Every structure is written in structure tokens, then in C-alpha cells.
From TrEMBL:
Spans annotated as Disordered: 13-36
Organism: Amycolatopsis tucumanensis
Bacterial bifunctional deaminase-reductase C-terminal domain span: 3-190
Pfam families: RibD_C (PF01872)
InterPro entries: DHFR-like_dom_sf (IPR024072), RibDG_C (IPR002734), Riboflavin_Biosynth_HTPR (IPR050765)
Gene3D superfamilies according to UniProt: Dihydrofolate Reductase, subunit A
Xref: SUPFAM superfamilies: Dihydrofolate reductase-like
Lineage: Bacteria, Bacillati, Actinomycetota, Actinomycetes, Pseudonocardiales
UniProt-recorded name of the protein: Dihydrofolate reductase family protein
Amino acid sequence: MKLTTMTQISVDGVMQGNGGASEEDRRSGFDRGGWAAMGKGDDGTHALIKQTYQRADAFLFGRRTYELFASAWGTDADVPGWEPVRRALHDRPKYVASTTLTDPAWAGTTVLRGDLAAAVADLKAKPGGELQVHGSGALIRWLLANDLVDELTLIVIPVVVGQGARLFPDAGPDLALDLVDSRTDSKGVTIQVYRPAGRPQYATA
């Protein structure tokens, strides 16, 4: 399986508290949650998101995102228009990178402990299409730093949030990217698909 990521970010790179509930993630005093609720993006973007989930063979989460997803999608409650996402998350295996989660309640969940790089490499070696990561910013940064990401999709919402945790912090490892696909929907949401391409080349004096 190839490891792919899909992340909603703001123009200034924030990914914290993007969901529909303003109380979703109040870490560090964040009070601007819900900036990327499902009403953002047009029908084409919503269809792309649903199709992405449907083609997953398995999902990989960090603990915080796993718990948010379990509370939002891990029940039989219907989310109007988003049943394909709920069904995919219920039907496919789910893996959580966590040293503290001991008894996951969501059926089909396996907790990855110990050597995470080896565990993810083993998952990638399995036959299939995609091992998908949604949200899970700290996990994505770690996967990128360990050269385990094959493709990343950024869904950029046309808003400057001005506070909150960013996908890429001010100080971190550098990374060159090859643009695979780019589109803009009728509401100004852009979808950019990249493949990691090693370290960037910098101009010399």
C-alpha cells in the first residue's frame, strides 16, 4: 500500500480545530474552531473527499485525531450526505499510533506500539491501494521526517485563521515537493496533491 495523507489547512497553514464544532480542539486557548466546516467547498470537492475515503484500504491515525473521528464517525448515527465516509471508516481497518491508548472502543482498531517506523513499513508492504492518514498533524510530520509518505493532499480553505497549530511549524525539517495535481473549486477551495521529492535545492552565493 502507498501511504497518503489528506489535510484541510487554512491559507496560513493552520489545521487545528477545522471541524464543524467550535469546541473540537481548544488546546493553547484556540477559540476559532470550525473554520473548515462541511459547508466549505463545493459539491465537486465534497465528492473528491468521499471518493478518497472510499478508495482507502486502511486508515492510520494519531491518538487525538482517532478519538475525534471515533466520536464523530464511530457510531451508527447518520451524517446526511456523508454516509460513504462513515461506511469506509467503519468497514476498513484502523491503526492508531499511540503509546497510551490501551482499549480502543471503535471496532476494527489496532494500536501500534513499539517501533512505529517498522510497524508502518510493514503496513505499507501489505498488498492494496492506500493506507490513508487524515488530520493527525504530529503524525504526518513524523511520517514525512521518516520518508514514509508517498503522497500528500492539501485542501486549502480560503481563510486566514491567525492562530492555532500549523501542519508545518516555524522550525522543522525541509522537504521538496513535486506537484501532481492542482484544482480550484467554485468556492475558492484549492486541492493540491504533492509527492515528496527529497530535500530542496538552495541557491548559493
